[in-house]
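fyi for ur records
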Amino acid sequence: MATSVQAADGGTSPPSPPPPSSASRNKRPNRPPAGTGWRSRLYRWDLKATPYAFIAPFFLTFGAFGLFPLIHTGWLSLHRVELGGEAEWRGFDNYTALWDSDFFWNALANTFTIGVISTVPQLLMALGLAHLLNYKLRGRGFFRVAVLAPYATSIAAATLVFAQLFNSDYGLINTVLGWVGFEPVDWESSKWPAQIAISAIVTWRWTGYNALIYLAAMQAVPQDLYEAASLDGASRWRQFVSVTIPSIRPTILFTIVVSTIGATQLFGEPMLFGGSLGVSGGSGNQFQTLSLLMYEKGWVTGALGQASAIAWVMLLLLLLIGALRLLLARAGRKKQGV
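which gave:
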């Protein structure tokens, strides 16, 4: 019980209040109820709308430059449209015309063959480079930057240099072949030599890029796996095959899909390599890809409807590739019991 204390002047001071209990110290005062004024409504509106405002620029940009062109291209593919003319409904005539077109099947076959002979060596060499760069080498930082230099080079510059190297009359490649006793190769007018030359450009530009992707995946592999394999007597090659490859299998599958998509959209390299005949893919369409055929239909002959149909066929091919990738990934997870 609190007692009064006698003051110095003979009076008594009021009793001191009791010390606050722990419950009262931990108890926070209740916040006043939210008001209904305009400040309160503005605060609630700002709290809900701010996240949407932050993501709105992406969706606006995607809608203007991605979704709308996609829908408009699909609409054009169902019409007969010429540059400067009005659209005329044709239904699926543009697609049936592609089915009966030898140029379309030739472009599709060229796209497939160029994609195979550029993607397979590219990814194999990228794996080898990444495996070498994963070890402690002198100046490996320099080599990691050097392998990325071709990717930083523009398509035009790289293609023009390779066009000179593969020139049929005075190119360095034919000169070297002549030194070892081979006849000069017509790299531009023949089908397979032209496709090999274009694939060499693609391989040179993208090998280092994929090697750095593989290197990043290899560095994430636990070192305990390599130590256990080394204790079991596994050589470096066996460690690479039995430890590295299975550990980075998702990354390998990703690069295969991305490289296949890039090969399907191949445009700059064959167009610049062919010079004045680049749009048609050479004098006999020997290296004309789907992208070149789409460009020729749309901007050379002016048939925008047929060009749009080719664009949608390419989109369907890419969707099939993506679906195949998902099926392979799901099968891999089931095999691992995940």
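Residues 129 and 208 are 8 Å apart (CA to CA). thats all i got for now
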